[in-house]
Amino acid sequence: MNQVRRTLDGSSLCTGIILIGIGTLILLDRMYIADFGDVVRDFWPVIIILVGIPQLFRRDKVWSGLWLITLGTWMQLVHLRVFGLTWRSSWPLLLILVGAGMIVRALVEGLTRERADERQ
Question: Which end of the chain offers a freer environment for a tag, N or C, measured as fewer CB atoms within 10 Å?
């Protein structure tokens, strides 16, 4: 028998779940069943994190997904003033994170290329 192998697109699945969740929250807010105004006002950077999560499921977009998650997390921590962080005082932290990410990416891609060369 001829079997067809199907693969699941994790990125589309994750994006669909996120959209359903956001749509449900907005619908409940608009129908006056629940009030999410304060939640949106306090946690709007989470949207950036949610945009980055589905990109982790695509090999060609992993790094951009990690950057969005890092940026969203930093913005959320600053917005909520976690650890006393403010926009003015914490931007050096973002520079450190970006620099560390660049180093990690260079190391990972170097190891990946090295392994690919060994296989050939």
Answer: N
Q: Which of 91, 48, 44, 89 is nearest to 72 (CA)?
A: 48
In a domain, residue 3? The reply is no
Contact 68, 49 (CB under 8 A): yes
- Residue 47, domain extent: 10-119
Extract the runs of DSSP E, i.e. beta strands, from 13-115: none
- pLDDT tens for 34-69 read 888 888 888 989 989 998 998 888 888 888 999 999
* Tokens describing residue 115: 């392994």
Burial of 46 (0-12, 13-18, 19+ CB in 10 A): middle
3-class SS of residue 93: helix
Ranges in the chain, pLDDT < 50: none
Helices and strands: H and E segment counts in the chain: 5, 0
Question: For the chain, first and last CA: distance in Å?
Answer: 34
pLDDT for 110 equals: 84
The DSSP secondary-structure symbol of 7 reads -
CA distance 45 to 94: 15
